[in-house]
Every structure is written in structure tokens, then in C-alpha cells.
């Protein structure tokens, strides 16, 4: 899907469209429009049409989008028409929640590997999987061919563990540690830090 | 701080600058530059200087930024030079992790109210606070004057609980339920959905 360059900001909106379409489909809906999607998402209908038109012709003038068809197409574009195995590193409260999170299953991901450094946790089970020793992480991830990791270790360990993940061949890291991590250019990183979102809102409060 | 209009995208970068400066300060650092901040964050030095210049003169040509001074200024700008009380609604795995999250304390927030609908959870303690019955939520939030809530209830309940939060006077909602919620224009909403971030990366994977 990288034949044509699509701005990262456009790519970032596609998962929002997909999520909204999947929810509509679960409600038994068959057809939607860029207007309706736009209202649900706070994005203009013109923007949605423009974003989608970068990838093909998905709707007919006047009849809107077939929800299941557009869902399938977006899943293909985002490469989530398969299920990706994911490792969770650091099984504190956040890692625990990620290991048991119900929202991954029908959206292209499943957690299959858990790692921690704490001897008291290693060998115990969370969400059906045994927490493994982080000292075996590189070989376990390599053996399993896992390309995606979620990082929920303390800030002090985040870069060191990141280096191991890169060594293991991980290509995408979702970092929950509130610190920026350095990776080679071919590795993708996204960040989740609730405080960044909260501070972005307090700016507007009195 | 709303005297001058600053684009939301600029506001959104300020918490990143603040976080980086606070980490530097913890390492005992005194001075930094837009170059160094830019390298750590993957943002151009020019962009950082431009963003900060919207709020005043924080650095001197050639000597860089005083870290503690710029930290103080950013905390004022983002209104986190005080501690905001926060309610967590829905104490499943995610809510549990939020209630116990250690990363809020020195960044302007503390969790003080927990709500759930499950009789088995109501009355039990998480992170030092008792989980209260969601049916008392509106009055409890009003009494406490809490303006910020984190929403970690199932998708099916997200809009209904949002309406109660708005009724209670909450002005900022951080929504962990993977669905868009509707609020009056004066209420701010931010979203955290790990799948959106993961799908944004799988687009680039093979």
C-alpha cells in the first residue's frame, strides 16, 4: 500500500473511520455517508471524502458508502485484515490491563507474549498467558516472529528495553512509558501518555 | 491564557516540551536548547522556537533555555501549576490502572474519586480511594467541584455516563472507551485508544 505517498496525518485518520464503521456494522447498519461519518467524528465530510479518495473509489455519488465493503477495504489498507501478534513488556498495572484488554480481538491484534523483570511475576499468568523473564525476551520474540510490542515499563528502563526490542526485530512499538524513546528510522513508535491529553485540556480550563 | 488565539496543534505540543524539560530537570540539567529538545522529540528546532514564541520570550540568543524557568512558564500556560482533582469512572482493568497510576502526581493531576456500577466493587478501595456507586456520581462530583474525568466504562455505556458527567459540571473528559462521544461545545474531550495507534503503525508494516 506504499505505492503512493499518503501523508501520515491522513493515515492516522483511517483507524478512526474504521472504528466508526465497525461500530455501525455491529448496530446492523448497511450504508453510511461522509456527512454521517463526519458528524460522528467531528471531521468535515469533504475531508473524509478526500482522505478516502487517496486509496480508491469507495462510494457512489448519492448512494453513500457500503459499510461492510468500506470496512473490508480499510482493513486491507491498514493491514489489519489479519491478526498481528503483540508482546507486552512490563506487567505492572498498565501492562496487566493491556494483557487483558478486550478491545484488540476484532481489530487486528492479539497479545501473545508477556515479559517482566520481577521474579515474583515471572511464571504467573495474566489473560491466559504466562509472564516470561525479560532476559529471554529477545530470543522469544525472534522465535515467535512478533513484530509489534507495547512497552509499559518504568521510565528508567524504557530506552534499554526498547534497544532489546529493536534487537529482537520488533518494527512497531506502542510506548506507555512517559518518555521519548530513540529507535532506528525503520522502527515505528507511537506514544500513549494520559497526562499529555489532560494537559492539553487544562490549557482551556480556568 | 486565551487572550491570544493559539492553534490547538501548538497547544498539543506544549505538554511534550514540558515533559521533556521535567525529565531533564530530574537529571540535574539546568540549560537546554531548541536543538536538543528537537532531537529528543523529533520536532525541528525552528518549530519549537516558533511554538514557544507564541507565549513570550523564554530563551536568550546563544544561551538557550533555563530549564526550570521554562518549566515553570509552561506549567502556568497549561494551568498545571496547580493540582487538578480527577474522577475515574469505570474501575475495570483500565480504570484500576488509572486509579493507581504513579505518573500523575508531579504533572498536575491526582485521582480523588472513583465510580463503578458493580455492587461487588462499590465500597472496595483502589489506590487509597473507595469506589463509589455511579448512581451518586453527579452529586459527588458537583460537591467536590471536580472538573476532569477519565472514562473507562464499556462502549455501550460511554455516552450515557458522558451525559451524567456533563450534568455534573465536568469540563474535560479523557475517554478510554473506543467510541466517539458527544458533548456540548464547552466540554473538552480527548481520546485514548491503543488500537488506533497500532493500526496507524501496521499501515507501514508488511
Explain briefly what this protein structure is.
2 copies of one chain form a homodimer. With 206 residues, chain A is α/β, with parallel strands linked by helices.
Descriptive overview:
The structure is a homodimer of 206-residue chains. With 206 residues, chain A is α/β, with parallel strands linked by helices. Helix content of chain A is 41%, strand content 19%. The first copy, chain A, has eight helices and ten strands. Chain A has helices spanning 8-26, 34-41, 45-53, 67-77, 93-100, 137-144, 155-167, 194-202; strands at 31-32, 59-60, 64-66, 84-89, 109-116, 125-126, 129-133, 148-151, 172-175, 188-191. In chain A, the strands form two sheets. Chain A has a seven-stranded mixed beta sheet with strand order 6-7-5-4-8-9-10. The first copy, chain A, is globular and about 60 Å long. The mean pLDDT of chain A is 94. The interface between A and B is large, with 60 and 60 residues.
Key structural traits:
8 helices, 19% strand, homodimer, 206 residues, globular, seven-stranded mixed β-sheet, three-stranded antiparallel β-sheet, 41% helix, alpha/beta
Q: What class would the helix/strand composition of chain A place it in?
A: alpha/beta
Question: Helix count of chain A?
Answer: 8
The string of secondary-structure elements of chain A, in order, is HEHHEEHEHEEEHEHEEH
Q: Tell me the β content of chain A.
A: 15-25%
Q: How far apart are the first and last residues' alpha carbons of chain A, in Å? A: 45 Å
The percent range for helix content of chain A is 40-55%
Which two chains form the greatest contact, residue counts included? A-B, 60 and 60 residues
Uncertain runs of chain A with pLDDT below 50, 5 residues or more?
Answer: none
Whole-angstrom Rg of chain A? 19 Å
Question: Can you list the strand order of the major beta sheet of chain A?
Answer: 6-7-5-4-8-9-10
Molecular shape of chain A: globular
* Average pLDDT rating of chain A: 94
The protein's oligomeric status is homodimer
Number of strands of chain A: 10
Amino acid at each position: 500500500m506504499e505505492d503512493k505517498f499518503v501523508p501520515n496525518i491522513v493515515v492516522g485518520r483511517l483507524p478512526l473511520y474504521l472504528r466508526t464503521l465497525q461500530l455501525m456494522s455491529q448496530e446492523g447498519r448497511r450504508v453510511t455517508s461522509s456527512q454521517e461519518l463526519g458528524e460522528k467524528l467531528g471531521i468535515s465530510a469533504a475531508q473524509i471524502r478526500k482522505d478516502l479518495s487517496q486509496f480508491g473509489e469507495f462510494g457512489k455519488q448519492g448512494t453513500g458508502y457500503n459499510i461492510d465493503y468500506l470496512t473490508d477495504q480499510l482493513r486491507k489498507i491498514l493491514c489489519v485484515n489479519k491478526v498481528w501478534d503483540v508482546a507486552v513488556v512490563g506487567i505492572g498495572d498498565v501492562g496487566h490491563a493491556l494483557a487483558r484488554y478486550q478491545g484488540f480481538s476484532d481489530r487486528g491484534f492479539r497479545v501473545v507474549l508477556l515479559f517482566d523483570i520481577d521474579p515474583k511475576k515471572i511464571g504467573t499468568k495474566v489473560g491466559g498467558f504466562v509472564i516470561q523473564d525479560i532476559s529471554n525476551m529477545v530470543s522469544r520474540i525472534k522465535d515467535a516472529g512478533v513484530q509489534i510490542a507495547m512497552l509499559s515499563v518504568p521510565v528508567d528502563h524504557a530506552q534499554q528495553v526498547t534497544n532489546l526490542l529493536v534487537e529482537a526485530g520488533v518494527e512497531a512499538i506502542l510506548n506507555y512509558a512517559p518518555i521519548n524513546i530513540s529507535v532506528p528510522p525503520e522502527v515505528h513508535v507511537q506514544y500513549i501518555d494520559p497526562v499529555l491529553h489532560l494537559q492539553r485540556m487544562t490549557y482551556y480550563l480556568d
